[in-house]
Amino acid sequence: MSERIAVVGIGQTEFKSRWPEISQVEMVNLSVKRALENANLTIKDIDAVFVGNMELFEGNYQVDMWLAEGDGAYLKSGMKIQTGGSTGSSVCTTLFDHAATGLYGAVLGIAFEKQDEGSSDYGLRIISEDTFFDIGNGARAAGPAMAAMALDMLKRQSVTEEQIAQLRVQEAENASRNPHAHLRKRLTVEEVMKSRFLIPPLRFLHMCPASVGACSMIVAPEKKAKKISPNPAW
């Protein structure tokens, strides 16, 4: 039977629009170092490393291989994870699942973007799709697809615009307490609902910016977690 899984270490870099003075390897390495320090571990204590990145945004592929110097993955188990806009959450579930197998004592996951080194617009445009048959998805874009889903939910009255705005206000509140966050401005429901439309019903303040930054997380099964951390996050 699998054990409970806990977060025993976390490390974030600063998040910003541009960070030209640091490379992707250096940026990822910074987040890994901070996670190891937070967990009071060394890279030798890590059994597996998983890296997640929306590689089309930078135009660089196989990040799990060429980041090995910075993320400590050399000669360790692991893989690259890329599920589009859900990559960050997919890294988390991958860490939890592998730690639950009992094969690993401590598992490191890294998610990052460094979009100041490439063009996400160009990267998405090279996807080979037939715009005629993909017209319902907005032809190569997440925005139109998400807008269609949001509009459908509003029409079915399963959610209101005010409820959506309240969720955005909550997210802004959370970010305002994170010293590393890209945006730390608190918002009101009125500000969100009065911001301009991008693709109705999606508004400007519903959208996230293109950010540069990395986050690393170390998880471990229950027996190992209690040895590593006096206060693990379950």
What does this structure look like?
With 234 residues, this protein is of the alpha/beta class. Strand 5 and strand 6 form a beta hairpin. It contains 9 helices and 7 strands; from the N terminus they run E-H-E-H-H-E-H-E-H-H-H-H-E-E-E-H. The protein is globular. The protein has helices spanning 24-39, 63-66, 68-71, 87-100, 120-125, 142-155, 161-176, 189-194, 222-228, and strands spanning 5-12, 48-52, 77-81, 107-114, 197-199, 202-203, 212-221. It starts with a strand and ends in a 6-residue tail after the last helix. The strands form 2 sheets. Strands 1-7-4-2-3 form a 5-stranded mixed beta sheet. Helices cover 37% and strands 18% of the residues.
Gist?
The protein has helices at 24-39, 63-66, 68-71, 87-100, 120-125, 142-155, 161-176, 189-194, 222-228, and strands at residues 5-12, 48-52, 77-81, 107-114, 197-199, 202-203, 212-221. The chain has 234 residues and is an alpha/beta fold. It is globular and about 50 Å long.
Radius of gyration, in angstroms, nearest whole number: 20 Å
* Major sheet strand order: 1-7-4-2-3
Kindly report how far apart the N and C termini lie. Answer: 17 Å
Total beta strand runs: 7
Shape: globular
Our estimate of the beta-strand percent is: 15-25%
What would the average pLDDT be, to the nearest integer? 89
Task: Report the major sheet.
Answer: 5 strands, mixed
Count of helix runs = 9
Helix content: 25-40%
Structural class of the secondary structure composition? alpha/beta
Q: Provide the low-confidence segments as ranges.
A: none
The run of helices and strands is: EHEHHEHEHHHHEEEH
